[in-house]
Design goal:
Blueprint lengths: L15 E5 L3 H7 L4 H22 L3 E8 L7 H24 L2 E6 L7 H14 L5 E9 L1 H18 L9 H5 L12 E4 L18 E4 L9 H13 L11
Parallel strand pairs: 1-2, 1-5, 2-4, 3-4, 5-6
Helix pairs in contact: 1-2, 2-3, 3-4
The protein binds 3-methylbut-3-enyl trihydrogen diphosphate (2 copies) and magnesium ion (MG).
The site of one 3-methylbut-3-enyl trihydrogen diphosphate has 10 residues, from helix 1.
Length: about 240
Amino acid sequence: MSLSQTDIDLTNLPRHVAIIMDGNGRWAKKRGLPRVMGHKRGVEVARRIIIKARELGIPYLSLFAFSKENWQRPRLEVETLLKLLGEYLENELPLLMEKSIRFKALGDVEDFPEDLRDKIREVERATAAFREMTLVLALSYSGRAEILRAIRFLTKDFKDGGLKEIDLNDETFRQYLYFPELPDPDLLIRTSGEIRISNFFLYQIAYTELYFSDLLWPDFSEEEFVKALGEYQRRERRFGRVYEF
Ligand code: IPE
Ligand code: IPE
Ligand code: MG
């Protein structure tokens, strides 16, 4: 049985879907191909999911593309990933413009070489006015690094008197995160059968619904995405409260 868009409630979609796109390397290995071929295929799948999310009207889509820990991979793989990212930014700008999608990089962008940083900033600037949908690309991102960075800035504001201890709460803390406007993910999808978070949004996933797929990211599809949305809609989100007694 195939699940189509008509099987989900378009009036009850998650506001923010986050995806850990995992399994590119294994997909390639299974086919006797170099890992980079998996990453190339992965980029195409990401494009299809972005278009689908836009079509459905999901306001925020976050894709984990490169973690802070991924810098520790073999140099050749890191270089290839950076090259792919550069090509991606160049190739996707027209699509983002055509579909009115705002692009935002999330993470320590200063870790990247200057030419890539410029490209990231250029795509952010060119799409900054779009509000229908925001595509967040997590680049050199680590949830712990984000929290520690927030604490560093926060401590500075304490010392300067810009922030009083009594005023520190969830709302004020969020102002120190990379992208304060970003709502918490309602749904987090991870592919490749790994049941872990791998340092993605840590502060933000307190009440996120988690969805794990055994598919390797290059095998993920629009249909699987819709399936995850359907499963999300069948979950009862309680946020620690009691709804029936
Ligand atoms: C996810 O696929 C993409 C990145 C982390 C950049 P992997 O490269 O982690 O693929 P596997 O998990 O080794 O199969
Ligand atoms: C998480 O995948 C990061 C991205 C998808 C970019 P990893 O492949 O790096 O995570 P681990 O090593 O399996 O935890
Ligand atoms: Mg992996």
